[in-house]
Amino acid sequence: MTKSALQIARSAYQPKLPKALRGAVKVENGKTTESVADQEAIKELFPNTYGMPLIKFVEANEKQSFPAINVGVILSGGQAPGGHNVISGLFDGLKALNSDSKLYGFILGPGGLVDNNYMELTGSIVDEYRNTGGFDIIGSGRTKLETPEQFEKGYENLKKLGISALVIIGGDDSNTNACVLAEYYAAKKYGVQVIGCPKTIDGDLKNEMIETSFGFDTACKVYSEVIGNIQRDCNSARKYWHFIKLMGRSASHIALECALQVQPNVCIISEEVEAKAMSLDDVVTYIAEKVAARAAVGNNFGTVLIPEGLIEFIPAMKSLIEELNDFLAHHAVEFSQIKKSRQRDYIISKLSKENSDVYASLPEGVARQLTLDRDPHGNVQVSLIETEKLLSDMVAVKLAQWKEEGKYVGKFASQHHFFGYEGRCAAPSNYDADYCYSLGFTASTLIGNGKTGYMSSVRNTTAPAEQWIAGGVPITMMMNMERRHGEMKPVIQKALVRLDGAPFKEFASKRDTWAIETDYVYPGPIQYFGPTEVCDQPTKTLQLEQAK
Fold first, then answer.
1. Whole-model pTM above 0.85?
2. Quick one: which H or E segment has residue 70?
3. pLDDT tens digit string along 225-252?
4. Catalytic residue selected from 92, 172, 202, 217
């Protein structure tokens, strides 16, 4: 493997650990827990892993001796910066418990467990990947572990390797699967512990005990750097409005964090759009008003941040998509026989009046995407809709109307960007390198203390690392019941942007000023070496939530 100068220097970085994990550790049990909602239903589904206490690790006087243990690890779902350091922390933690312990990585996600595709992760292999981005040490995959057949096949493979604990590093769906697996193995008395670790750049896996999901910090810093660069270009050329779509289908945490970092002229928050029952035209009008206000003072340029999942949060669009999905599921053959030139009129004639009007108002390209690009379940692939282009096109039309009416006196030209994959495998920031290493080390400590059905938790992360609080949270505590594919299923509740939360309130208090003034911030690239105030800062979101 050829390494860059930064990689070579970075490999020597020793991630910081909470003080409580640096020596002998003992378990301090907290309050017993219950699920965030639907308590009776969740308790019934998880009788062996429900109601367990919160766990905090504290320093102990005497070091315990632990037997050697074989542990498996899986990287599940989309990549996020810091995954390699979770594995590094897990490896070092297991070796600290007993130097004869072994760690096995299952290749390409949960499918590797079912297919018995694995490799032993030795010290020399782990050392190659410390403090690096990506999931390429063992790869990742999106196979869902949800059927007894998969659980049994996985157990057979674990038994062959003598593995008695499994760590699943993933987002809300992956950790939901970890919870189901932990319950299944506990019910069968198979003696296999299952521990989860909170991963997702989208930032929507968090609660009172999980401050943030790993990778969010790094991804937002990567996006903010590039947005800052665009804003500097924007302020230099002074002739373009840049419409920038950011990852975050289910929540707008990334857009909000980037807005707090770079101070754009406009940032749309999906959760606010839904709460205010805004129409697509309302969103377009809001943006156009900011464009017109800047044009009035001679500034025909600016930046607009848009969350990837915005369309699904607009109530009228959500209603249209649901009716389209249902209609096309039942009339797919009939629709396929309509000439392309007549498909738009055909759809307009078949929908309810309200949804028909919304569909008719959409640009041709977007209307076509809503009817043609469907996933294997027959649903619209919303992430493929170029929301940034849709909004800029509709803003252009509205501004042209206003110009005719004498309400707008500027020039409008747009550029489009989508930042997603660029942030998923970046070299982790110091915060993520430290946080992930601590999560992995905490997972090993949970295993050593015989726990299952827990998610690794590291809190108080706006303080210096030695003051971080390590422990475990029962995954059942985060669960509720939701309708998935027509059935009620237990799932981890997604954390959306809270409109009454400190981060959104801070943004809302500043956005009118940012809209008119060119008050851009240029964060620059992630810094790994230098003053702690430059290198070790957590996200603005976390600082505001922790009021620090």
1. yes
2. strand 70-75
3. 999 999 999 999 999 999 999 999 899 9
4. 202
